[in-house]
């Protein structure tokens, strides 16, 4: 059934792995006469962290830059054409290499966000200010305004996700993955509203990027009454981006499209997997009561992205 022009659709996103798909849905709506304001991009905040006194929101910023057409698509993060003079000067002064790359233009956003947080504005309000400033017509919605942190117990200690993935390049053994603050955190009202009728889960790390958002208080209840479509982050046995395989195995979850579908089984209706996905995996997903469709889910060009968006929106 074609998507109504006025129906709200919640699009759950992580960062780099989700950015091409977020852009694809946004471009499809804008180029096909659909109202982009009916899309709400619900973004993971469990990778937010403080860096040199600034509040940095990697996934929120990646999706913001992607929708604004400013993302450095080669790196998958940061702003295109950015410089790193601030970090270079800081390294010179401290005589130590900076482990997290924050470009100068990227730095401007983090500086302004931190200023506004200290003035009492919520992360949702600040994100909307930025969205409007960059002329983005769809809402970008932090999943919660509460503090969440994906953390990992490792031989290197209890690490924030950014430390594990960026500073230590995902090398330490993972003994446990947990989300600090999840039991008390509540979703933003806009996140609940956009997820209530129709929802799309973009490819992303199911443990660190999607799990924190869909397990906020009351969110699963909304999703169970919604029509939820997800796109697998796996192409065969390889993940689109991030340390998902290592995390899933630590959590006792099969590192495959089936493992992702099983994790989402309480609310997932339809799952898109790669054209070449194993027949056994597809059968196991369907045995969960989830419709499984094979498709070309690798976005190489803008046209391919729009085609994937079209197929999904025709079903919603």
Question: What's the layout of helices and strands?
Answer:
Layout: E1 9-13, H1 16-31, E2 39-43, E3 49-51, E4 54-56, H2 58-68, H3 85-94, H4 104-118, H5 123-133, E5 139-142, E6 149-154, E7 157-160, H6 161-167, E8 176-180, H7 189-195, E9 198-201, H8 206-214, H9 219-224, E10 227-231, E11 234-235, E12 238-239, H10 244-250, H11 257-263, E13 270-274, H12 279-287, E14 291-295, H13 302-315
Parallel strand pairs: 1-2, 1-9, 2-5, 9-10, 10-13, 13-14
Antiparallel strand pairs: 3-4, 6-7, 6-8, 11-12
Helix pairs in contact: 1-2, 1-13, 4-5, 11-12
Structural features, described:
This protein is an alpha/beta fold and 316 residues long. It contains 13 helices and 14 strands. It has helices at residues 16-31, 58-68, 85-94, 104-118, 123-133, 161-167, 189-195, 206-214, 219-224, 244-250, 257-263, 279-287, 302-315; strands at 9-13, 39-43, 49-51, 54-56, 139-142, 149-154, 157-160, 176-180, 198-201, 227-231, 234-235, 238-239, 270-274, 291-295. The strands form four sheets. A seven-stranded parallel beta sheet has the order 5-2-1-9-10-13-14, with helices on both faces. Strand 3 and strand 4 (54-56) form a beta hairpin. The protein is globular.
DSSP summary, beta strand count: 14
Most strands sheet: 7 strands, parallel
Report the sheet-strand fraction.
15-25%
Architecture in CATH? 3-Layer(aba) Sandwich
Radius of gyration: 19 Å
Shape: globular
Average pLDDT rating: 94
Estimate the helix proportion, in percent.
Answer: 40-55%
Order of helices and strands: EHEEEHHHHEEEHEHEHHEEEHHEHEH
Uncertain regions: pLDDT < 50 for 5+ in a row?
A: 1-5
- Count of distinct structural domains: 1
Straight-line N-to-C gap: 6 Å
Strand order of the largest sheet: 5-2-1-9-10-13-14
Number of discrete helical segments = 13
Determine the CATH superfamily. Answer: CofD-like domains
Report the structural category: alpha/beta
Question: Which CATH class applies here?
Answer: Alpha Beta
CATH topology: Rossmann fold
């Amino acid at each position: 059934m074609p998507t109504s022009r006025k129906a709200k659709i919640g699009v759950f996103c992580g960062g780099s792995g989700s950015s091409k798909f977020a852009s694809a849905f946004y471009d499809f709506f804008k180029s096909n006469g659909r109202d982009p304001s009916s899309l709400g991009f619900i973004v993971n905040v469990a990778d937010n962290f403080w860096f040199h006194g600034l509040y940095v929101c990697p996934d929120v910023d990646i999706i913001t830059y992607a929708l604004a057409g400013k993302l450095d698509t080669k790196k998958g993060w940061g702003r295109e054409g950015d410089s790193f003079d601030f970090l270079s000067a800081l390294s010179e002064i401290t005589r130590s290499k900076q482990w997290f790359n924050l470009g100068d233009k990227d730095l401007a956003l983090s500086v302004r966000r931190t200023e506004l947080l200290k003035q009492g504005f919520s992360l949702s309000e600040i994100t909307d200010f930025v969205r409007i400033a960059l002329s983005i017509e769809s809402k970008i919605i932090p999943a919660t305004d509460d503090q969440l942190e994906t953390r990992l117990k490792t031989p290197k200690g209890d690490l924030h996700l950014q430390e594990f993935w960026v500073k230590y390049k995902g090398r330490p053994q993972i003994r446990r993955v947990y989300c600090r603050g999840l039991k008390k955190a509540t979703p933003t009202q806009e996140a609940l509203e956009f997820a209530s009728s129709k929802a799309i889960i973009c490819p992303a790390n199911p443990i660190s990027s999607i799990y924190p958002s869909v397990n906020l208080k009351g969110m699963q209840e909304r999703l169970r009454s919604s029509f939820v479509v997800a796109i697998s982050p796996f192409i065969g046995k390889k993940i689109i981006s991030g340390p998902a395989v290592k995390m899933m195995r630590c959590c006792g979850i099969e590192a495959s499209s089936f493992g992702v579908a099983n994790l989402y089984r309480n609310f997932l209706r339809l799952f898109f997997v790669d054209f070449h996905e194993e027949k056994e995996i597809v059968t196991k997903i369907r045995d969960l009561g989830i419709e499984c469709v094979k498709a070309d889910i690798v976005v190489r060009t803008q046209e391919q992205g729009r085609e994937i968006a079209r197929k999904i929106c025709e079903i919603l």
